[in-house]
Design a protein that fits this description.
Layout: H1 10-20, H2 24-33, E1 39-43, H3 50-66, E2 70-74, H4 81-88, E3 96-101, H5 102-110, E4 122-132, E5 134-137, H6 146-155, E6 161-164, H7 170-182, E7 187-190, H8 194-202, E8 208-209, H9 213-221, E9 226-230, E10 256-264, H10 269-283, H11 286-294, E11 298-299, H12 304-325
Parallel strand pairs: 1-2, 1-3, 6-7, 6-8
Antiparallel strand pairs: 3-10, 4-10, 4-11, 5-8, 5-9
Length: 330
């Protein structure tokens, strides 16, 4: 219906419009005023992990840009599924975010019933960072190279154990791909997150692991852990002497973890645009980049379209990796 309103009929038109679309006006007002109260950013990982440090750094930078506090809430467990389920079913009003990452996509294949759909239940706003995966052992292990680790595993089939940050995480799939490519076996011991996984290697509870770079890097620098290889396509500038797995004689394993921000699927366009604009500004601040890059991570902002595409690509990649490593959904 087209309403041609003259000055003399303006009041009548306003009344008619309000009667025709009574539910639309509150929503439009809410979008334009947003945010008017604190925002909760759910982190499906433990405190002190690489994603946690990144999220807290960004929350501090984004809060003044939006004019409201952004509060981090850690909801770890089930490979990130607990936090993801919580946000998938939260009101789509812009006040509940999730730090989304590669495991959210991988869980679509790693779990038979993760409790959410990583593609349909979220609006993926922006990739924020990327991180390499690092193969580590304890310095007292007597292992000095990838070749040493492979030979030790070959001499003790299934007896070496490795830690992961949970089923379906890059630290899990990465090792399974490594073992498959090297033709050896080891026993999987899942933990609740990257920090616990690294602590397990530090405490000699397990033999090796492949955590994200940021969590292991300080311990490698201090000599408490030994880095054997980078599970990526190129070396990391923070550890230039550490080879890639391909350079170390195990080709075909190239993994990079990534993380960003997502919201419930029905979140309005106006709110999504405001969130994206705020993070575009925050991620480029020198102080923010310094914190992220100091731990070996990379700043990698993206458009919503590219970030959403990353999820579908990661799901397909996970399916291919599981098939190669002969893993079945849990």
């Amino acid at each position: 219906m087209n309403l041609h309103c003259t000055a003399s009929r303006r009041q009548l038109c306003k009344a008619l419009a309000a009667s025709l679309w009574p539910a639309a006006w509150p929503a439009l007002a809410a979008d334009s005023d947003w945010p008017t109260r604190p925002i909760k950013w759910v982190l499906p990982y433990l405190a002190g992990t690489g994603p946690d440090i990144t999220a807290r750094t960004l929350a501090e930078a984004v809060s003044p840009l939006l004019g409201q506090p952004v509060v981090i809430e850690n909801r770890a467990g089930a490979g990130g599924n607990i936090g993801a389920r919580m946000v998938a079913h939260a009101p789509a009003d812009g006040y509940t975010w999730i730090y989304s990452a590669a495991p959210m996509a991988a869980n679509m294949r790693m779990y038979a019933n993760p409790g959410y759909d990583a593609v349909k239940d979220f609006r993926h706003i922006m990739r924020l960072t990327t991180s390499d995966i690092l193969l580590i052992v304890h310095p007292s292990s007597g292992i000095h190279s990838v070749h040493d680790l492979v030979e030790r595993a070959r001499a003790n089939p299934g007896k070496l154990d490795y830690a992961s940050g949970g089923v379906g995480t890059p630290s899990h799939l990465g090792v399974e791909l490594f073992l498959s490519a090297a033709g050896v076996q080891a026993t999987h011991v899942p933990y609740k997150g990257a920090s616990e996984m690294v602590n397990a290697v530090l405490g000699k509870q397990v033999f090796f692991a492949m955590p994200i770079f940021a969590v292991a890097f300080p311990h490698v620098q201090a000599g408490r852990l030994k880095a054997l290889a980078i599970a990526g396509s190129q070396r990391n500038a923070a550890l230039p002497d550490v080879p890639t797995l391909a350079e170390a004689g195990v080709p075909g394993v190239s993994l990079t973890s990534w993380g960003g921000i997502s919201v419930p699927a029905r979140t309005p366009d106006a709110i999504v645009s405001k969130i994206h604009a705020a993070f575009e500004q925050a991620i480029r601040q020198p102080a923010v980049r310094t914190v992220i890059e100091a731990s070996g991570g990379g700043v990698s902002p993206s458009s919503p379209q590219d970030y959403a595409k990353g999820f579908t690509q990661e799901i397909a990649l996970t399916e291919a990796m599981m098939k190669k490593a002969q893993l079945a959904p849990m």
